[in-house]
Amino acid sequence: MVRLEPGPGIVLWRERLDRAAQTALVAAVRALVAEAPFYRPQMPKSGAPFSVEETNFGPLGWLSEPGGYRYGATHPVTGKPWPAMPPALLALWQAVADYPHEPECCLVNLYRGEARMGLHQDRDEEALEAPVVSLSLGDNARFRIGGTTRKGPTQSFLLQSGDVLRFGGPARLAFHGIDKVVAGSSTLIPGGGRINLTLRRVTRPAA
Ligand code: MD3
Ligand code: FE
């Protein structure tokens, strides 16, 4: 494992999870996806479908709907509560977040084919003092991050399976996105592709 600080507020642990831990997490995700299947969210204004498929684990899930972005406790297709987060993800948060409360949302993004994610900010959470932690599994991806305005310089780096990122402080509201995924670059996920797990605290903890 190598720890890097590619920018203010950004920590990148290369290969934070070894191959066995990655395989175990993919199996855990697959089991939970049987309860909370991937679905394709829609953009709020246009109603256009995402190229990424999503689901969530934990008490709150992030949703993009024609009415806007929101956090909700139930799956938009099944109506059931989101499954609990795998213990390994809670342990990862505890190891890297440097934040004294549990995460409430694990957003699961599945990238297959030409899926990508345009430059955006994560700002639908009340607890902006908490960091965001993200884990990459499967195919390599070209990740881009800039500052807190849409204009201005960006930097990009390749994310590989097992890499973990923490965004806090000045990076918490940075614009970021996934330019592309390199199909066939990993054999981790049956059927190919990339899974990103993003852990977030949503509500401000009671004092
Ligand atoms: C920087 N996901 O779900 S993970 C997202 O790979 C999202 O699926 C991308 O952006 C993915 O919102 C990027 C890296 C990431 C996640 C959250 C961030 C970078 C971030 C929040 C603030 C700043
Ligand atoms: Fe994001």
Which keywords apply here?
Jelly Rolls; mainly beta; 7-stranded antiparallel beta sheet; 207 residues; 4-stranded antiparallel beta sheet; globular; single chain; binds fe (iii) ion; 13 strands; binds N-(carboxycarbonyl)-S-(naphthalen-2-ylmethyl)-L-cysteine
Task: Describe, in plain words, how this protein is organized in 3D.
By secondary structure, the chain is mainly beta. The protein has a single domain, classed as Alpha-ketoglutarate-dependent dioxygenase AlkB-like (Jelly Rolls, Sandwich), CATH 2.60.120. Helix content is 13%, strand content 34%. The chain contains two helices and 13 strands. The protein has a seven-stranded antiparallel beta sheet, with helices on one face. A four-stranded antiparallel beta sheet has the order 7-12-9-10, with no helix packed on it. The chain is globular, with a radius of gyration of 16 Å. The chain starts with a strand and ends in a 7-residue tail after the last strand. Fe (iii) ion binds next to loops.
Helices and strands, with pairings:
Blueprint (H helix, E strand, L loop, with lengths): L1 E6 L2 E5 L4 H17 L17 E5 L3 E5 L2 E5 L14 H10 L8 E7 L5 E4 L11 E7 L2 E5 L9 E5 L4 E4 L8 E6 L12 E7 L7
Antiparallel strand pairs: 1-2, 2-11, 3-6, 4-5, 6-13, 7-12, 8-11, 8-13, 9-10, 9-12
The structure holds N-(carboxycarbonyl)-S-(naphthalen-2-ylmethyl)-L-cysteine and fe (iii) ion (FE).
